Amino acid sequence: MDTRTCLGVLASLIMAGAVPAAAQATSETSTTPATPPATSEAPPGASSSALIAQGDAVFHGPGNCYACHGSKGEGLVGPNLTDSEWIHSKGTLAEIEAQILHGVPKEESKSGIPMPPKGGSTLSDEDVKACAAYVHSLSQKGS
């Protein structure tokens, strides 16, 4: 079995819920990324630290995002979310939110590995917004 087939099988298992328990064990050792300092006026597209903290809880909890993107968002089956390289968008807050909400169909996936809408979970619209804020904050740490 080649590497691409193995990754596809692994992604299918993860989306089916067979792997999250194993991935969750690593989330206990994860660290929360630093949030940007609070200012009186947030730049356009910036999120509040409370929303980012809620998104962290969604990412590492009911969203199961860590199962594909890793407990620190550095990528496993899914891409790295901590750098400035975005595969399916420019990485704006609105684009990240839309991508979480709608997913990435296999035929549009540049890696060939799909992401189901809401990562295959039953997140509320509020959870999607919070998760997008958290993911956006991950890519802003180095900038």
Please explain how this structure is put together.
The chain has 143 residues and is mainly alpha-helical. 44% of the residues lie in helices and 0% in strands. It has six helices and no strands. Helix 3 packs across helix 6 (125-140) and helix 5 (93-102) packs across helix 6. The chain is globular, with a radius of gyration of 15 Å. Mean pLDDT is 77; it is low at 1-44.
The gist of it:
With 143 residues, the protein is mostly helical. Helices cover 44% and strands 0% of the residues. It has one domain (3-30, 44-140): Cytochrome Bc1 Complex, Chain D, domain 2.
CATH topology: Cytochrome Bc1 Complex, Chain D, domain 2
Described by the principal axes of the CA atoms, the overall outline is globular
Query: What portion of the residues fall into strands of 2 or more residues?
Result: under 5%
Low-confidence stretches: 1-44
Q: So how many helices?
A: 6
Task: Give a short account of the largest sheet.
Answer: none
Roughly what percent helix?
40-55%
Provide keyphrases for this structure:
143 residues, mainly alpha, disordered N terminus, Cytochrome Bc1 Complex, Chain D, domain 2
Protein topology:
Elements: H1 3-16, H2 20-27, H3 49-59, H4 66-69, H5 93-102, H6 125-140
Helix pairs in contact: 3-6, 5-6
